[in-house]
Amino acid sequence: MVPVPGARSAQSTMLVALDIDGTLVTYDDVLSPAARDAVAAVRAAGHHVVLASGRSLVAMTYVAADLGIETGWMVASNGAVTVRLDPEVPEGYVVEDTVTFDPEPALRLLREHLPHARYAVEDVGLGFRMNELFPEGELNGEHQVVAFDELWAREVTRVVVRSPGETSADFHRVAAGMGLEDVTYAVGWSAWMDIAPQGVSKATALEKVRAELGVEPSRTVAVGDGRNDVEMLRWAARGVAMGHADEVVRASADEVTGSIDDDGVVAVLRSLAP
């Protein structure tokens, strides 16, 4: 077989999992030219770049497009949704795996503790059903306001809780005090909580992608900044926390790079494709 320039063997190919918010893009949703070029260089070197985010699928597709990623894999909704990008299909992707749960017990319990919060459930590839509208720009896709008890009309991949009156620390205390046994949760950098099916994380989805791609476990890299990245950073052979991440996230990583203000992800990516 004639070697293909730039091609890599399965043994040398890496899977590079990248969080989006606070890692690839700023909290104002800005992707720097340096980050875009670094991602392109890693892909040109033959490695697999997999976006892995707490965002919904519809909020990830335009980031992939901005990065020029038309094929490959993405992990959405903190691991509950895994898609294969395919420019040959109308949507541009094929949903390969979803993990769902009955949100009713968690929603009922949450509302007892956070009666004034806003609640939404994800409809994969479409948007969200919610008990009242979220602030503009916070959730992508279609928004359908429904009665609270209609939020559990069917199983879902994700529940979103937003309560501006609480801090992230408050959310952690509420979740811990409630003893959410049938679901896992991740609290965001603001007053925001994502609830996923039990045992589901970015790491569980990425492990399935790694096996599908045939990448060696020792050839995995992950970069993230949030509590929902902890499992992913521990899963990767080389887990890198962003410089602005809190101590829990930093302690879960093998190393720490610069902050989002320093474009810390760029240094990591350049080390993979010098």
CATH class annotation of the largest domain: Alpha Beta
- Quaternary assembly: single chain
Report the end-to-end length measured between terminal Cα atoms.
Answer: 27 Å
Identify low-pLDDT runs.
1-8
Number of domains: 2
Structural class: alpha/beta
- Cα gyration radius (Å): 18 Å
Shape: globular
Beta fraction: 15-25%
CATH-scheme architecture of the largest domain: 3-Layer(aba) Sandwich
Kindly identify the CATH topology of the largest domain. Rossmann fold
The tally of helices reads: 8
CATH superfamily of the largest domain: HAD superfamily/HAD-like
The average pLDDT value, as a whole number, equals 89
Query: For the largest beta sheet, what order do the strands appear in spatially?
Result: 5-4-3-2-1-12-13-14
Along the chain, the helix and strand elements come as EHEHEEEHEEEEHEEHEHEHEH
Short description:
The chain has 274 residues and is an alpha/beta fold. The protein has helices at 33-44, 61-66, 104-113, 168-178, 202-213, 230-235, 247-252, 264-272; strands at residues 15-18, 48-52, 72-76, 81-85, 93-98, 118-123, 127-130, 142-145, 159-162, 183-187, 192-197, 220-224, 238-241, 255-256. Helix 1 packs parallel to helix 8.
